[in-house]
Amino acid sequence: MTAAPRPLDVRKTDTLARLVNDVDAWVSTASPDGTPYLMPLSFLWSDETLLLSTARTNPTARNLVANSAVQLALGEVRDVIHVTGTAEVVEPTDAEGEAFAIKAGFDPRPLANYPFFRVTPIKIQAWREVNELKDRVLMDDGRWLV
Question: How many folded domains does the chain comprise?
Fold first, then answer.
């Protein structure tokens, strides 16, 4: 039996908890010619954005430099958070860099070829079962709806 849909405020609270506590997300980018690329990356939720890092030579990094559009997915098929956003190359604050290293178990800061990318969410959706699909959009146009 499917559980009742969560109220939107509960779904937002659950989503924020996952963004704070989950370590990895599937990151989807596209090359300039439209070739899709999907890879798992660690992230840090910081100041309503996601901080990522990957090797400059990795297709994800090359794609984000050429095309800032990005999508991320966290969770399981029946408990998913889907983020659509834009990415930019950034220099993290010392606190962010340290928090990222602790959370990810990997510190890219000493590596010259590992840029950081800040993903600013434009849209965030979250749902568990089909009964939550109707109200799955929690953020739209960069603003929380709940």
Answer: 1
